[in-house]
Amino acid sequence: MIVLHEYPLCIVDHAGFRRFVTALQPLFKMVTRNTIRKDIFDNYREERKKAMEYMATNRSRVAITTDMWTSDNQKKGYMAITAHFIDDNWILRSVVMRFIYVPTPHTAEVIAEQLYEALVAWNLDEKLSAVTVDNCTSNDKAIDLLVKKLGTEKLMLKGVMLHMRCCAHILNLIVKDGLDVMRSAIENIRESVSFWTATPKRVEKFEEIAKFQKVKIEKKLALDCKTRWNSTFTMLNTALPYKAVFERAKKVEKLYDSLPSEDEWFFASDVVKRLELFFEVTELFSGTDYVTANIYFPKICEIKEKMRQWATCGDATIEAMTVSMNAKFDKYWSDIQGLMGMATLLDPRYKNEMLLVCFSSLHGVSPEECHGLVKEVIDSLCALLEEYEADSNEDNVESSNSSRPAATTTALMSVFNARIAQKRPATYRTELDQYLVDDLVPLIKEHFNVLDWWKVAGRRYPTLRKVARDIFAVPVTTVASESAFSTSGRVLSEHRSRLASDMLEALMCSQDWLRNKYKYDRSGDAASFWSCLQDIQEGLQDLTI
To answer: What residues does 64 pair with on adjacent strands?
Structure first.
């Protein structure tokens, strides 16, 4: 309870809590905070041991998201590392692996070393699929250093797909560049919001004017943060319904001198409608309970198509904003189209037909001119499939060698395999070939879950199914790691700023594992989250046998 709900360890000393526990069970002897601390550490170490054992036997690759955070109260830097994988029951899992104190300076070398040590400790250095990080120079260099430390032999396509840039961060950069162009056009609205939220007295007066105008206060005005475009979108979206209130406020408050003009209100309304797509896509990409890799390409193309329309809308400010946004878009989108193109290809509703449409939209040409680009993605997926087939053959050889009698001759098997290869028809299809020629799943199908499809129908393509399982586990944003910082900010409040870094990691990881346990095991029967995963894995292995 203390870990799950972020209660302070000293709650055991609170008179009210002690009376409450005594009322429940008078014979219970209250423990000390030192005992609580020891129990938290003991439980964390036991759960971490189970987690590492599970990861060692887990048959899928694992994607990583990571980000840095500096505590306001401790002035220390922490790194959150979150693992994303699809378990044997084809459920997407996201769990906090580490929450590490990282001494300054936070250079690329330090980040790469911390990541490498965490991966090795968790037996993930040979099971890594991708690392999703924010777009900054130090992260770019850190990933290059990480590839050198890991080696390319065990990475997908020799590490070409390891670096995944956070799409939410890229969208933020794109829209921010656009808003910088038109910032003066919405300055009066920002000044108005700033004026009426400056003091409690003004807030109350604004609400009284709204009542007089019979305008219902559904959302409170909030000033934006200039470095985050979504806060500017929220500010404008909230202020627009109060246009009549601002106009009335101008008449009753002499100090208020920044009332927007009709043209400025119209422009703000237009901007909100245009940015709504970015806002919705960012929220969609930020989900952690569903696969996001397969929806990335279509949504990015939808944004590109909209920007192409804005470039010829006739409004000089909007057109200037679009030029700036397009420049940033073209700079980043190509960096991650390979991996996300494969994810689109592996969605049975889309396959290569959606890729043709996407490339056509991105480049502004006809789909017939994009077959070469689609072929590049298919060739990359084919090369990845061959890697998985080679790994499967090695596993099968090792398995057969362990059970094969000593008298079995490998030479005889080589001759046998050669004859089988000669008799194989010239039109032999790989799993990928067969998958691509099979019918598409209708888009009108409601509540379609791509993981459920691959869990059941995907059995027809056993090796391609393994590839899909690993690619769909890759998140397109670092939101899972960033959300840990909002929790850590509460855990490491000004009243708890003396928490040691190892205690903070124990609290953060244990809380995440508990939440995962209650999320998927509402009955509470499982001893722990990792025990629950082990039970699923062992149960499915028994079914296979």
So the answer is: 83, 131
Structure-block tokens of residue 407: 């008298």
* Per-residue pLDDT tens over the stretch 115-145: 999 999 998 999 999 999 988 889 999 999 9
> Based on the number of CB atoms within 10 Å of its own CB, is 60 exposed (0-12), middle (13-18) or buried (19 or more)?
middle
Could you tell me which residues are beta bridge partners of residue 95? 83
Condensed to tens digits (0 to 9), the pLDDT of residues 493-504 reads 655 667 788 888
Distance from C-alpha of 258 to C-alpha of 255, rounded to nearest angstrom = 9
Burial of 353 (0-12, 13-18, 19+ CB in 10 A): middle
Burial class (CB in 10 A: 0-12, 13-18, 19+), 428: exposed
Phi, psi of 37, rounded to the nearest 5 degrees: -60, -45
Cα angle 123, 151, 465 (rounded to 5 degrees) comes to: 65
Helical segments of 182-261, H only: 187-196, 200-212, 229-239, 243-252
Specify the higher pLDDT residue, 406 or 453.
453
In b/e form, how buried is each residue of 332-342, taking b as 16+ CB within 10 angstroms?
bbeebbbbbbb
Give whole-number Cα distances, 33 to 14, 15, 37, 325, 493, in Å: 11, 14, 6, 54, 18
Which structure tokens are listed for 95? Answer: 């769990």
Cα angle at 217 between 211 and 220, to 5 degrees? 130
Which position has the higher pLDDT, 468 or 392?
468
Task: State how far the Cα of 430 lies from the Cα of 268, in Å rounded to an integer.
Answer: 54
Residues in CB range of 380: below 8 A, 6 or more apart? 157, 338, 341, 342
pTM of the model: 0.84
Handedness of CA 90, 62, 68, 170 (dihedral sign): negative
pLDDT tens sequence across 322-352 = 888 888 888 777 656 688 899 999 999 999 9
